[in-house]
């Protein structure tokens, strides 16, 4: 009987303490989804994911994370799944991003923002921390905040409500 009571107390505590994913803001969900894929080889250069082997997939990773979190990511074509690439994320005047009505540039990056230098794209997951797809796997590091060679020069923030 004590075991049942203890188990019930733990379950109630966990439920009250953790809440649910829907309690998170959209930007918090984007960051949480990205962190959840750390170590995954699903978007590696050699994987077949969406665009075939031996192709960079950092933009595919970012697009799938954003969509899994419930946000809108711009696509180049309306009739098939074609998310914008790192180069387009790198344009402060991107019509694709502007047309969604949900993305704006920011000079003070925060969690869930997209960091880019026009060649690579990543999700900001913490203070000077990003998660992105690399040659081997998804990594969490300081890409985008490590001048001069790994510094993002543009950050995009999702602004639409959940």
From TrEMBL:
Protein name per the record: Peptidase C51 domain-containing protein
Organism placement in taxonomy: Eukaryota, Metazoa, Spiralia, Lophotrochozoa, Annelida
Residues making up the signal peptide according to the UniProt record: 1-21
Species assigned in the record: Capitella teleta
Source species, domain of life: Eukaryota
Keywords of this entry: Signal
